[in-house]
Amino acid sequence: MDFETLIVEMRGAVALVKINRPQAMNALNSTVMKELITALAAFQHDDAVRAVVLTGSDKAFAAGADVKEMQGVAFADAYRGDFLAGWGEVAGFRKPIIAAVAGFALGGGCELAMMCDFIIAASTARFGQPEITLGIIPGMGGTQRLVRAIGKAKAMDLCLTGRMMDAAEAENAGLVARVVAPERMLEEALTAAQKIAGFSAPSVGMAKEAINRAFEQPLSEGLRFERRLFHALFATEDQKEGMAAFIEKRSAVFKDR
Ligand code: CO8
Prior knowledge:
6-stranded mixed beta sheet; Lyase 2-enoyl-coa Hydratase, Chain  A, domain 2; EC 4.2.1.17; alpha/beta; 10 strands; 2-enoyl-CoA Hydratase, Chain A, domain 1; binds octanoyl-coenzyme A; 2 domains; 11 helices; 4-stranded mixed beta sheet; fatty acid metabolism
């Protein structure tokens, strides 16, 4: 796949997607959005892609939406065109997607990382929602996903002051799953993605779906939803294979059936 703002490489069954706008700290302009949506739509239908790692450069995962592109936007156009709504497609991606974050993940960059299933960060990573300094607020989930990830106190602190959080604070707060040395970050994310890619796709997909459902409904409904998916997996060949492999002390060979 050839893109202007993305570099896509296959690493086994994992698609590695790098945001590549070095001149603008990987700011997320409309081309990045369109290209990422196009890439994810292609991955969704490609059986060779079993997981995705989304990353940036060592300086910036993404320093936010492109301020230079946004500056002249008028309210009526933003409203009528549902400006930035397309980014929701990333959150709706059904295969596993890991954000591998080094350097700045600010504004839309932090929001994009939070749309992924989990974040593996380099110790250099810095997260923040500096929109308030520009006279706006987060527009793609910052006020909502951040509260769920790190709670009201820190979400308010970040969104109201515009300050940045380093990787250690982000890990302590629960935004980040793992923090590793910068030179190990990509390997760590690719290894995690390869591991997930080796499991049965229906169980991976259902685990993701059930966890995401926790944000949408009360506990009793979430537990019922989880249990129904759990029951459903007993209809798969992979459940029989996974359990037989455990009992026979061998590795499971999953067929996604
Ligand atoms: N947009 C456009 N250009 C940018 C952006 C950006 N967000 N960030 C950096 N750049 C550009 C700079 O303008 C500069 O370009 P030039 O060389 O032409 O002047 C180049 O990248 C390098 O940047 P700096 O010289 O500023 O580099 P520093 O190392 O001094 O600073 C920072 C790095 C701290 C990251 C700094 O660039 C910065 O503060 N950037 C802006 C961060 C920001 O405010 N982000 C929030 C944007 S608003 C937003 O994201 C709304 C979200 C809505 C939803 C979006 C969905 C994805």
